[in-house]
Amino acid sequence: xxYSKTSSKIFxxxxxxxxxxxxxxxxxxxxxxxxxxxxxxxxxxxxxSGGVGAITKIDHWNVKQLFESNIPxxxxxxxxxxxxxxxxxxxxxxxxxxxxxxxxxxxxxxSGHGAFDRQNQQQFLQLSLxxxxxSELLKHIVQKSxxxxxxxxxxxxxxxxxxxxxxxxxITVFPQEISPLFKSLFIYCKGVVDITSSKLxxxxxxxxxxxxxxxxxxxYPLVDLMKVNKDNAQMDWNQLITELSTKVDxxxxxxxxxxxxxxxxxxxxxxxxxxxxxxLPSPPAVTDSSDEKKSYRFGVRAAQHQGGGMRMLEIIxxxxxxxxxxxxxxxxxxxxxxxxxxxxxxxxxxxxxxKKMQVKLINIRDGKTMTPTIELGW
Length: 378
Fold this sequence. Notes:
The protein is α/β, with parallel strands linked by helices and 378 residues long. Helices cover 31% and strands 24% of the residues.
């Protein structure tokens, strides 16, 4: 009897242990199953003057359908800003109120009027209920600290002296899994994407029933290009922008083979101010006979942060920065005890550092200050 009771007790202990381990495994798998989300804000100014409002409805529909046909419903959150809320305060409120994690992607798409403020040297969106500078909008987007911040604007960029501060619905069939292209561009990337449809001094044109009323000459080539390449897992932002530049110019020349006579504009040129992989230096070649691989010295692209320091916009995969646990959004305050406030400060400090570099930075997700020592690549 003694043996039987002991065996029974051991069996019960093992049973409860197995149940507990199974519970932990289920919890872990559930946490891993929580996928990154893509948040898309669409601000198509359907009240825009001069017939542009009708075109923005087409742009709105095209962009919405593009995302819905490439991303599962469970991973996609679409927020539409209605025409009656097309003002700066409402737009900022929409961005600021989003509930996102630092592993999510935030995309803001705007279609409507726009111009360039000559006095303040900035492009702005000419909303039907006011105006908003692109730089201010991008700041609100970035401050949400998503994994990837994207601002896409389809609007004119001609200079002015100063600024005073729907189709029939269809049933959408969401895919079971996010498309390879959208994984490549929106899930695997970190940093900031900042693209507008025309360079300084140019109008952003639309297909106003001349060829087929397809929408704006930036948006419909973008949508078409992404539809054609939806299964292309190798396309990155650099390739997309290169091909989109050609497509937008072709769309313009299809409308105006001899140029736009009233303005004298001969092409439409997109501007990609920022995107993952832009202007990254190539790693130096290894000239000795060792097996050491090519590497990046630090592997961070950074820009001035409004509150001081340099904000990390992109961290290169398998670089010293990534291996040290640094994340996009962290703000560098000092390098080796020297205050860093400009790109020149940052570049000089990294270049002057020895093999080990001490960095003082703020993790903007929790506001904590950290001082890691980085083992540089070379």
